[in-house]
């Protein structure tokens, strides 16, 4: 049974991200002046505070940095945690396609998109 995920809040700033998600594409933001990629996509760079950021398509590949297993759920245990993308940013996410006891720190994962309750699909990660 797939755990239902509430629809995300979509606003003018995040609209391009959610439009790409509907197409199965994963976008991150990159700052033009400092060159650093960041997550969650936002207009202002969290590193240098520049407003000159651009959307960049990411393959959505990375490694599990940390995770936690939620045992008390009507749909059964599930895992959430952080994935460090190959581009550098850490993404808080849900893990799918594997039992929680099949996850390990440092494990390679890839992005997938999971439907939500009435909104755009959200990125989740599964073992590579």
UniProtKB/TrEMBL annotation:
InterPro entries: ChsH2_C, ChsH2_Znr, NA-bd_OB-fold, Thioester_dehydratase-like. Residues 18-52 form the ChsH2 rubredoxin-like zinc ribbon domain. The keyword Electron transport does not apply. Keywords: DNA-binding. Residues 55-114 form the ChsH2 C-terminal OB-fold domain. GO terms for molecular function: DNA binding. This is DNA-binding protein. It comes from Phenylobacterium hankyongense. The lineage of its organism: Bacteria, Pseudomonadati, Pseudomonadota, Alphaproteobacteria, Caulobacterales.
């Amino acid at each position: 049974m797939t755990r239902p995920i509430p629809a995300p809040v979509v606003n003018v700033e995040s609209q391009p991200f959610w439009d790409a998600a509907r197409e199965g594409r994963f976008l991150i933001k990159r700052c033009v002046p400092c060159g650093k990629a960041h997550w969650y996509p936002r207009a202002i760079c969290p590193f240098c505070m520049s407003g000159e950021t651009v959307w960049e398509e990411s393959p959505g590949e990375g490694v599990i940095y940390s995770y936690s297993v939620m045992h008390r759920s009507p749909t059964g245990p599930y895992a959430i945690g952080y994935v460090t993308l190959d581009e550098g940013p850490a993404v808080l996410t849900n893990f799918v396609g594997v039992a929680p006891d099949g996850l390990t720190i440092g494990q390679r994962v890839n992005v997938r998109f999971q439907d939500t309750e009435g909104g755009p699909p959200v990125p989740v990660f599964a073992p590579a």
